[in-house]
Automatic annotation (TrEMBL):
Keywords: Ligase. Residues 343-460 form the GH3 C-terminal domain. Residues 241-327 form the GH3 middle domain. Belongs to the IAA-amido conjugating enzyme family. It comes from Gossypium gossypioides (Mexican cotton). The keyword Magnesium does not apply. This is Indole-3-acetic acid-amido synthetase GH3.6. It comes from the Eukaryota.
Amino acid sequence: MPTIEEELGRRSLLYSLLMPVMSQFVPGLDKGKGMYFLFIKSEAKTPSGLVARPVLTSYYKSTHFKDRPYDPYTNYTSPNETILCPDSYQSMYSQMLCGLCQHKEVLRVGAVFASGFIRAIKFLEKHWRLLCNDIRTGTIDSQITDQSVREAVMKILKPDPKLADFIEAECSKDSWQGIITRLWPNTKYVDVIVTGTMSQYIPTLDYYTNGLPLVCTMYASSECYFGVNLNPLCKPSEVSYTLIPTMAYFEFLPVQRNNGVNSSISVPKTLNEKEQQELVDLVDVKLGQEYELVVTTYSGLYRYRVGDVLRVAGFKNNAPQFNFICRKNVVLCIDSDKTDEVELQNAVKNAVNHFLPFDATLAEYTSYADTTTIPGHYVLYWELSLNGTTPIPPSVFEDCCLTIEESLNSVYRQGRVCDKSIGPLEIKIVEPGTFDKLMDYAISLGASINQYKTPRCVKFAPIVELLNSRAVSSFFSPKCPKWFPGHKQWINMN
């Protein structure tokens, strides 16, 4: 996405609105710190020499973030050096260590995405012994080799055997339920994105936080930043965002359900002439109507389809407020990745070429974003037609897994290779007739037999259980797919 220096200032202004809004609902936030797990990602250069990097990396590396004036509302436990460390392990370790050292000062915790915060908890679950040793002795583990990180952490880290004993006692217990409120007892809320596909992580967050409020403070993407949540303590299912009209010029394309919000046809980012005539201005949207968001930005995007579907939830005075409904065409998402139906179809098509020597074909398939594992991973359910007599060896299915991963976009592959935010892709082979059973089940719930088509992604728990009950074998990608920092990439934040 194109951006300009001026845009960073505009986005910084939106960040400055968040805590004044929060302080209306949660008093005393200026009396402590926020423990946020923030990270940069790899960057590259375009052929013309421009820097290409994720939007948050651009912000964290800017003077707007690095040289921000002291503000008690944006006082973090993580020093800038730990956030700007390019090594994901060293960054996570040092941020967690600083957060533990200042555990009594922490009033709020968070990350950008819910998945990222859960990943931090799992990191603590795996490395708490090393962290306790550092706190007990006042030294930093030898695996942290970044000198600037070590120097920044040593300004915070002091020998504290009592704190180490406390952390060890809590982390040694059989259950990690409520571990956030146990280790950081003054925490008032969790600040993460839990709308859209991130809602799948809500039960896990509730478990680890003892039901602390889950707060979605803002709505933003790589294209531009949009607005804020003026009622941040509402339930995640009720979150609505008030768009700030000075962030961009916003227009809205009415969405008709029969046009298929989840259509398998890839939607272009530009509007045709008919769609341009249908556009509605911000002041003309109707309560309860769903719209696709279209933006014209200061950075050069003109009537660009963001790909988000919003519903008008109400008004703040005369300003409309929107629920985020879904991403158009996206079927799978674990972290910042977004895989649509067409991309998945092409990846599967590439993979089934491995079956040619065995006279086998793929009869049907669907997919599922499994977030019960940390990190989460894609699961594909395959029903095969076996015409040959030669059995297909496990290595072929593993090759299929890897081929699919190689065929997916660079954001997915970066999550697998660099960020470790996505686990190895899994293929489950199901019994013959499984997809007939799936159709029968859908029809029993009221689907039309004439209009039924196999869903390319499933989320409904009984359907996932049906598929899992008929799985006869399971295979995982044997290694990470290829990924190079030189590939152009971007991240949408919702």
